[in-house]
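Notebook entry, cofactor series.
This is the third protein in the set we're modelling with a bound small molecule. For this one the ligand is adenosine-5'-triphosphate. I'm keeping the input format identical across the series so the outputs can be compared line by line later. Sequence and SMILES below, as received.
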Amino acid sequence: MDVTLASILAASTPLIFVVIGETITEKAGVINLSLDGTVLLSAMVGFAGAYESGSVIVGFAAAALVSALAALLVAYSSIALRLNQVAVGFVLFQLTGELSAFLGDPYVRIPGPTVTYRPIPLLEDIPFIGKIFFQHDLIVYGSIVLIFLTYWFMFRTRRGLKLQAIGERPEAAHSRGMPVNRLRYLYAAVGGGLVGIGGAAYSLGAKIGWSEGHTTGLGWIALAIVIFGGWHPYRAAFGVYLFGALQFSAIKLQDVFPDLTQVLGTLPFPIMIFTLVLVYSDRVRSLTDRYPALRGILGSDPPSAIGTRFDVD
Amino acid sequence: MGFELREIHKHFGSVRANNGVNLSVASGELHGLLGENGAGKSTLMKVLSGFHQKTSGEILVDGESIDLRSPADAIEHGIGMLHQDPLVFLPFTVLDNFLIGSPGPERLNRRAAARELATLADRFGFSFDPDTPTRRLTVGERQQLEILRLLWLGARVLILDEPTTGISAPQRLKLFATLKELAAEGMSVVFVSHKLEEVEEICERVTIIRAGTVVGERDLPCPAAELVELMFGGEVEIGERPVVGLGPPRLTVSDLTVRDRMLSVEGFNLEVAEGEVIGFAGLEGSGQRIVLDALSGLRSANGGTITVNGRDLTKVGYRGYLDGGVQFLPAGRLEEGLVAGLTLTEHFVLSSRSGAFLIDWEGALAETVEGIAEYSVKGTPDSTAESLSGGNQQRLLLAMLQDNLEVLLMEHPTRGLDIESAAWVWEQLLRRREDGTAIVFASADLDELLEYSDRILVFFAGGVLAEVDARTSSVDELGHLIGGKVTS
Ligand SMILES: Nc1ncnc2c1ncn2[C@@H]1O[C@H](COP(=O)(O)OP(=O)(O)OP(=O)(O)O)[C@@H](O)[C@H]1O
Ligand SMILES: [Mg+2]
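Returned structure with ligand:
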């Protein structure tokens, strides 16, 4: 059991970075639909960077940089060039995906560096818990810290409140003195950087190596989980782990019930839809209106200004 | 703290919203700003509060020229603005709304902020539950929250852009008391309004602007006719209300039940005759809106029947109501009535009932030009809906109404309109009665209810508290009823 949970945790790690990153970007009002391509490109760049330099850190940094640039490009097209974020996102999805195949050609199926296994002394000896949480590599620990840190930042700090404000009602944020568009660039880059780390976490950790289409499909799943997660870091993380658990069971049960695995693999999607139907129902909404404590778990309002542009004059 | 504006120009492309405006307000002064729809009042105030960058001109605070690059600079200099539509974040809690944009340590101390909010609220007799989502507050409460926030940030110049349009009579009294108290403490207050009585009630001085420039400044009291003449460049004729005989029942509602998340109206009955005007009074959220929603088919009734001209429309859905000649004009102009980003011509196309597959752009353009002229909308067929001033958005909505309506439902039909426009709009509306149109409207403006309705239904907490005859009732009586007090 503990081994199973530990593998689910490890396998879900990259997606945590991607989902939290996109949650931050969308909270600021920028929607980066290129995710599926960006994750591919950053997985490839991460691997190539680590391979060429011999340092995993360089790989992660390069991946974060490339992916942050992609997110910035979406923000820039919207803010400065007045283009539609959705359209730019789609084009960028194609472009980054193709680019990963083209540039990644020399790195296909060759062995390269990987993140090192680093159990945490003492903590790893705690029965059950130790095995699940404390016998991993640094990036896994980082993903868990990221979830709590993002929550703390968004809901407990002044800057976090501003982040929510610019994605909710930019003209109100502007009237309260916030540099809306500057902040949007900033959070697009931060979110994009995290997405890149997630991409590299595949090729250097969870799914080692590079081949064409290495992570195809995961970006779209991440976009769906952001919505499922109601733009809340805890719920988003729950979505990622749920998805990971179902995928894991699908693989494990493959030999026993060959027919069932097909069903298990698709189960996350009906579950997501069902949850959305539930949280958007009138009854749940009036509950969350009345009990603020429930809002974090059940609240699900998207940032109202998502995908829109804000001009002062 | 006093301030002065010198030769302020603000241009949006080719539109000269402000064209060399001079205005000076002393410390402790309550200053009124009057002007017709589209005169440039909101623009001027947005320049003063740093929301818009001025094209040219000078802003002085306490005799010193200041440079406003953003609203942050303005707040730094003690200038705070309450916007026409309070700029709050609806899904966020009251407390977070209070906190957003305030200076302080990075780590939020919500408990301390809640205490400060409670203290400030106490001082002015307001009360808030800090954990409610702001969406659940009435417009008046949102304003109160914004005013407290601005005071908390240290505002010493307070700008209020049409603060009384969305709030109830008791809330207005409270607001006025607050403003007077603040002015007595040395605050300069700029009060933008279309209501002469209100300006006369609380302001000491008034500036009138027309077409982007100042056309006069007066000490109050001053004869209303003089102010009106300055605002419109002439006298405003308020036509006699045409007398129309009432016909057979046009709209019959029996035993209607409607519910929404927060409120339910049960057993509602109403009969409206041809040519009759019914006013709905009551505090916002007392049930008027959900009844109007049900009568227009926007919300399906949970029980009861609605018939128009003897035809049962209860189950036909919104389109069925439109086909049956029932139309609704909601209060949220940009939210519910218009589509931001679309031009006026596109709006006319959308609202036409033509079934043609291809759009007849020429015809639509002609219709738009005609509508603009007939309803004096200040805008061109290519203007987008959101670039119109508040009053002109309302004119556009009226211009798009179908011709021969059976039943016309409205919410705050003249909210934000200047006196001339309001009088003119009602003239148009009342003329529809000659064709037998029955009119039902909700309003927060007691004078409007008394002036234009035949009967008034007063809503309280989801029920009809009383029905009064508009000819014999008074503002006083209505005010009491709205507060839930039945006088015998
Ligand atoms: N962002 C904008 N872009 C283009 N034109 C604008 C913009 N804001 C205002 N205008 C134009 O500037 C003029 C003045 O508008 P403003 O909103 O200041 O009028 P107002 O006096 O506040 O009118 P109302 O009483 O109807 O609120 C109008 O013609 C309006 O169409
Ligand atoms: Mg205005």
